[in-house]
Each structure stands twice: as structure tokens, then as C-alpha cells.
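Troubleshooting log. The previous structure file for this entry was overwritten by mistake, so regenerating from the original sequence record. Sequence copied from the archived sheet and checked twice against the printout by T.R.
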Amino acid sequence: MVGVLGAGGMGTVYAAVGERGEQVVVTAVHAGQAADDQFRARFRREVTVLRRVSGPCLVPLLEADPEADIPWLATAYVPGLTLGDHTAVHGPLAGIQLHMFAAGTAGALAAVHAAGVVHRDLKPANVIWPRTGRGCWTSASPTSSTVLRSPAPAC
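Regenerated output below.
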């Protein structure tokens, strides 16, 4: 673990370094949530969903252990601001940025829906606008945990 990126209702989010030296994000569930059998069942389902979802503009789940004493999951690290913070600082998206974001969102939603998942938490706080200029969702699952990129030449 390198440091804390943030915390939310589900757990604490850490920056970490993966086994191959890559930057990753590890979300560790709060102990109180980990003790809740209903929460654990939802978390287990989320991990199952995240393992199924793949496609263009998606950053995949790298690893997870929903059965650990403190359940956790790891995804790729995408440095940047949330879409809400980005627009607060730079104003609304326009022109090519808006078109790229809209196309990426459509592609990401298509991939999510193709996996049989209905996304329930699309909001500016769950979207990252990375330093690369490509928009990213931080939420592909029903309860929010993975990242989707909007299109760029590499997408």
C-alpha cells in the first residue's frame, strides 16, 4: 500500500503497487460492513458481476477476495479528478471532450448491459477525468467499483 486515496460508505480506498509494479487501487471494506452478512452477500455478488464485465473503455477488476476477514478488491489506478471536480474547476465538458465522453459512456454502458448488468450509480462522483484527457467511470457494477474509459486512440 502506498497511501489512502479516500474513504466512503463501503470502505477505504488505497493506492498500491501490484505484483508487476503497476499502480492499482485497493478498496478494503470497513470492518462494520465486513461483519454484516447482507453486505458481504452484496459485495460477493458485486465481485461476481465485475468479473463478468469487460469490453471497450473498461478498466477491469484485477483481483478480489470477498471471503477475507476484511473483504477487498483491486482495480487499475487512473489518476485524475472526478468528473464533478473537473467541471467545478474547468467548467462543463464541451466540443471534442464532450463527444469523447458521450461515446465512451455509450460504449461502456453497452458492454455493461451486454454482461446482463443494469448500472444504477452513474453520477459525476463516480466518473474520473484522468490526466490523459480520457473520461473514465469508476463504476460499472450495480454498487460501484470499477473504471470505464471514454474513447481515445487506444480504446
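The beta strands are 3-7, 11-17, 23-29, 58-59, 61-65, 72-76, 80-82, 127-130, 136-137, 147-149. Archived copy saved in two places this time.
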